[in-house]
Every structure is written in structure tokens, then in C-alpha cells.
Amino acid sequence: MNHPGKSKDYVSQDEGSSFSDPQTHGAFHSHFIESVQPLIELIDSLRMIALDKEIDLPSIAVVGDQSSGKSSVLEALSGVPLPRGSGIVTRCPLELKLRKLKKGPWTGTITYRDYNETFHDALMVDNLVREAQNKLAGNTVGICDELISLEISSTDVCDLTLIDLPGITRVPVHGQPDDIGDQIKNLILKYIAKSETIILAVVPCNVDIATTEALRMAQDTDPDGHRTLAILTKPDLIDRGAETDVLNIVHGKVIPLSKGFIIVRCRGQSDINNKIPLSKAMEMEMSFFKNHRYFSSLLNGKASTRCLADNLTKELVDHIKKSLPYLTEQIQTKLLNVQRELKNYEQGPPVKEELMGPFLSDIIMEFTDQIYEMSRTGHLRDKNVHALLRPVFKKWDIYLRGTEVSFTARVNEMIDKYNEMHRGRELLTFSDFCEFECVIKDHVAALQEPAMKTLKHVREIVQNVFREICYLSFDQYPLLRYTVSKMINDIESKQEAKVEKRIKEFIDMEKLVFTQDKVLQQKLDDSDITQKNGMDSSDENFYDDDDTIFNSKGCALLDSRNLVPDKLVLYYEIIYQRLTDYVPMLIILFMLKDAAKTLRHQMLELRNGADVVQLLNEDSERGRRRADLKKRLERLTQAQELISNRL
């Protein structure tokens, strides 16, 4: 008998159940209980400690258009009455946790914000959920993204956790904001866009499946269909003759989904009006499929609420198993990062003002030691400044080497048109060295701009490295951080001006067109120019007695206009060698080494006359951030312990 005053539609779970008939009792996952519950409870425990704020957890999100039969499916799985009605009924995400008991009374627990209530009457679910939604989303028709958790423990449910989301709507009703449709879609996307979420898309059989917004959103976020399981509802309402189309959908011939389709027949509004209980509705469902001309063949794993429950549990458990290694790794990584970050927040300034000066000196010394070490070795933690600078200098070297081609072409062009364009008062067949010198000067002058670009690029790299050390060292002290950052910028600006001046001077020096005779002689000896002119480089008649430099006779033989390009290219190699090394060495010396030394000296002088209290004033967000990090540390540590204990 039912308790007095209770609706006959639902009965208390300790006396009767929606799944209490002999055919269905214990059917849901009896062979999975031992292995399934720990995994599902583990994820629920992780969600309970709010780990989902840190890491996306494996879950099943239920999505459906309004009036798609979503509530009926969830009722059939849970055995309890959920809120029904027109318009938006689910106004907050509802986490539905079903826990199968080996024995014991039916128990429900609803939790949201700081509220928690345990009850033992299934008929209370509807009112408790509505009350929770009103508190979170208001007594109107708005929605809210705060989660309501409803746990149901019973001998007649499967082990499963689902998150029911508001039904998709297109047209706002009276009292709803104009963008209610977008609000709902954004809330749904917040869940189904996560790669850890299995999407349970509920679609009526009696509509064009391709036009349903639920399946479209699932396809948008899961285009390959690897995370989507579709539920077809209301098979008793399809038009006669459309059965074959539904079969094609179930068999994946219309929209392929790797997790497939399952068709169910839950209680409709007429069944509810006729007060047909869920237990009877399940019997009617099995009878419907067994006796259906077209759909009876689907009972081998693609039809019925029982099949759906089994499949959902298997999918969720498999999903959790696959996710656990990555989940464990993510927790460990985040835990280490939080611990590392918290160290900076744990070290706050002394409360007593007389201790602030020594404390400031300590953190300044620690900062300058890092700057010195980085400038000396190039290494700091996982940073290698030379690894950052080397590609810049290599680019400068490649540019210099590449200009040799254009230089050679320019000299050859000059030789070809010498008599017409460059010859002055010299006699025919004679050449003026000044003309060739101008080619070198112009070419060298053009190297100044790329050299300056190299300088500016290096300044940016070094300054960023210095600033990174500054931000890490003084993250919690905004004024000190700003002061040191400005100091770094000023020093780098002054050093850049010095290097600019030196580069210009060096470019001007290269315009002098000079090298020691022995240097050029070595280039000539290593080249094939002498062979081109029929000279024997071993003939002593071409050299002075006291060294290996060509004498007048040797020089005369090489004084031929057709040899000028080759000889100038040899000289350009000398220019290249000087510039490719000198510019980077100059930049490293001033922008890195000297800048670090100057910064170190200025930092050590910073305390003199400084307002120590103001410099050590923490960011206004400092306390909040420290508290947040401690909560995260506690949460991640708990999660790590939960996984270790449960597995």
C-alpha cells in the first residue's frame, strides 16, 4: 500500500519502485557494481571538492530541445519525478547521481551552494529541485549556471552520474529576456565543448532529426561524433510509414556516431495524466518494442531504457578509465605549479618596519645574483639567453654573407661601364682606385641599418629576460617591480645609444678601406687569382726579400681591371669577417654584460634613501591570491589522495 496522502503515480522507494517488478529488479549493471561504483564515486568526489574548477572531469551532459522527452528519459533512469511543465523547466544544471545499493532504503540528497538536505521520500524531489532553482535563478523564468546536485541511492537504479542541462529554446516566452536562447546555448556549450564530456543528445523520433538544435550543437562541438550518444524518444508518435527512416537513423546510416543511437519509449503526458507509474511504464516499453513490427529487432542492444542505462554506465566507466592517467598527470602538474607559485606568496614582508630594510636588501641581493649569474653563464632556471640571441646573430651573419653576391654584381657592372661612366682624367686602360673605393664605401654604409635592427632585436630579448627576472622576484610588490622595470628600461636605452655610436664608428672605419698587407696577401695566396693571371706563386721574383708580400713586379702583374672584382670580393671577405663577429660581440658586451653590471650596481644603491615601507607594499590582490592558491593547493592535494586511495 501507498502511504496516506501520497500520489499513486510515485511510491516510496522502500515499499515499491519504478524498477521493482521481477523482470527489472536488479537488472541494471548487477555485474558491474563492484568495479563501477568506485570509479564513478571517485569522479563525484573530485567534483564535490570542486576539482572541476581546475580540471575538466569526465561526465555525461544531457542535451535536448524543449519537449524532446529529456525529462522522461531521466525519470525512467532515476525512478523519481523531476520537474515538468511548459517552457523552461530545468533552469539550472542538475547533477543527477544515481547510486545502486545492494540493500537498504531509498535515500535522496540535494546539495547546492551551502545547502544540503537528505530525505527519504521520492515525491519530494520535484519540489526540492524547484525550490533550489528558485533560490539560484530567481522566481522568474531565468536561468543560472550554478549546479544543483541530486544524489539518489537505491537498490533499483544503475550506477551513473548525469548532468541535465536546460532545454534548448528559440523563442522567448513572457517574462524571459530576448537572448534567453543564447544564454541557454552558452550554458550548454560550457559543458559539451569539453573533450572530457560525453554528450547525451535527446531527439524525438517524430521530428526531422537534422533540424534538432541539440544534435546540431553536439555535431558542432564533436564533429567526428566520438563523444556523442543520441537517444531517440517518442517512437510511438511517429507517422505510419516513417519506421524505416527511424531504423536507418538508429543504425547510423543518416548521421554516423561512434557511440551510436538508442531508442526508448518513456512515459508521455497522457501516461502521466492517467497516473501510470514508472514501473508499469517500463513494462509497457518492453512490450511496445517486443511487439513492434519494425523495432523488435532493436532489442538486441539498441532499444529500451534498460539498454540505455547499461550503455551509459559502460560508456562513463570506460571514459573515466581512459581519462584517469591524464587526469592524474594534470593534477600533479597543477599541484607543482601551485606549490611553486605559493612559495612567492608565502614570503611576505616583515610586519615590523625595522625589519623591512634588511628584508629589502635580501630580496634585492637575490635578484642581483640572478642577474649576474644569467649575464655570466647565459643560463637561469630554464632560460638560456644565448639560445635566444644566437638565431639573431645567425640572421645577421646570413645577411652579410648574402650581400657578397650583390657587391660582386655591382663591381662587375662598374667594370663593364667604367670607360663610359666612371673614367676621369686617367689615360685609356688605366683605372682610378677611388672609384672602386666608392663602391666599397657605399656598400658598407648600407650595412648600418641591418646592424641597428640586430641591435634593437637583441635589446628586446635581453630586456625581456631582465624584466622576467624582475617580475618573478618582485611579483608581489608593484611599486618595487615598477621601479626596477623602469630602471631596466633606462639602462638598456643608454646602453643601446652607446652601441649605436660604436656601430656607426665601426661602419665609418670600414669605409676607410684598409687591411694589413699580410692579411690581403694571405687571401690572395689562398685564392686562384694568381693562376688566372699566369703567375707562379712560388716564383721568388714576385716577392720582396724580407717578407711574403708581392713586390712591384708581382703587383704589376695583378694590376689588371678584369681581376678587380675578384680582388675586391677577397677584401669584402675581410670586411665580412670583421663585421660578423664585431657587431655581435659589441652588442653582447654592452647590452648584456655591462647592462647587467650597471643594473646590479644601481639595485644595490636603491635602498639608500628609499621609502622601504612603500616599496614593500603588497598588491591589493595579494591576500586574495594567496588564499585562492591555498584553496587550490588543498583541493589538488585532496584530489591526489582520493585517486591514490580509490585506485
TrEMBL record:
<feature type="domain" description="GED">
    <location>
        <begin position="561"/>
        <end position="647"/>
    </location>
</feature>
<dbReference type="InterPro" id="IPR020850">
    <property type="entry name" value="GED_dom"/>
</dbReference>
<dbReference type="GO" id="GO:0005886">
    <property type="term" value="C:plasma membrane"/>
</dbReference>
<dbReference type="GO" id="GO:0016185">
    <property type="term" value="P:synaptic vesicle budding from presynaptic endocytic zone membrane"/>
</dbReference>
<keyword id="KW-0547">Nucleotide-binding</keyword>
<dbReference type="GO" id="GO:0005737">
    <property type="term" value="C:cytoplasm"/>
</dbReference>
<dbReference type="InterPro" id="IPR030381">
    <property type="entry name" value="G_DYNAMIN_dom"/>
</dbReference>
<dbReference type="Pfam" id="PF00350">
    <property type="entry name" value="Dynamin_N"/>
</dbReference>
<comment type="similarity">
    <text>Belongs to the TRAFAC class dynamin-like GTPase superfamily. Dynamin/Fzo/YdjA family.</text>
</comment>
<dbReference type="GO" id="GO:0098793">
    <property type="term" value="C:presynapse"/>
</dbReference>
<dbReference type="InterPro" id="IPR022812">
    <property type="entry name" value="Dynamin"/>
</dbReference>
<dbReference type="Pfam" id="PF02212">
    <property type="entry name" value="GED"/>
</dbReference>
<dbReference type="InterPro" id="IPR045063">
    <property type="entry name" value="Dynamin_N"/>
</dbReference>
<dbReference type="InterPro" id="IPR000375">
    <property type="entry name" value="Dynamin_stalk"/>
</dbReference>
<dbReference type="InterPro" id="IPR019762">
    <property type="entry name" value="Dynamin_GTPase_CS"/>
</dbReference>
<protein>
    <submittedName>
        <fullName>Uncharacterized protein</fullName>
    </submittedName>
</protein>
<feature type="compositionally biased region" description="Basic and acidic residues">
    <location>
        <begin position="1"/>
        <end position="11"/>
    </location>
</feature>
<dbReference type="InterPro" id="IPR027417">
    <property type="entry name" value="P-loop_NTPase"/>
</dbReference>
<dbReference type="GO" id="GO:0003924">
    <property type="term" value="F:GTPase activity"/>
</dbReference>
<feature type="region of interest" description="Disordered">
    <location>
        <begin position="1"/>
        <end position="22"/>
    </location>
</feature>
<dbReference type="InterPro" id="IPR001401">
    <property type="entry name" value="Dynamin_GTPase"/>
</dbReference>
<dbReference type="GO" id="GO:0031623">
    <property type="term" value="P:receptor internalization"/>
</dbReference>
<dbReference type="GO" id="GO:0008017">
    <property type="term" value="F:microtubule binding"/>
</dbReference>
<dbReference type="InterPro" id="IPR003130">
    <property type="entry name" value="GED"/>
</dbReference>
<dbReference type="GO" id="GO:0005525">
    <property type="term" value="F:GTP binding"/>
</dbReference>
<dbReference type="GO" id="GO:0005874">
    <property type="term" value="C:microtubule"/>
</dbReference>
<keyword id="KW-0342">GTP-binding</keyword>
<dbReference type="GO" id="GO:0005634">
    <property type="term" value="C:nucleus"/>
</dbReference>
<dbReference type="GO" id="GO:0051607">
    <property type="term" value="P:defense response to virus"/>
</dbReference>
<dbReference type="Pfam" id="PF01031">
    <property type="entry name" value="Dynamin_M"/>
</dbReference>
<feature type="domain" description="Dynamin-type G">
    <location>
        <begin position="54"/>
        <end position="325"/>
    </location>
</feature>
<keyword id="KW-0963">Cytoplasm</keyword>
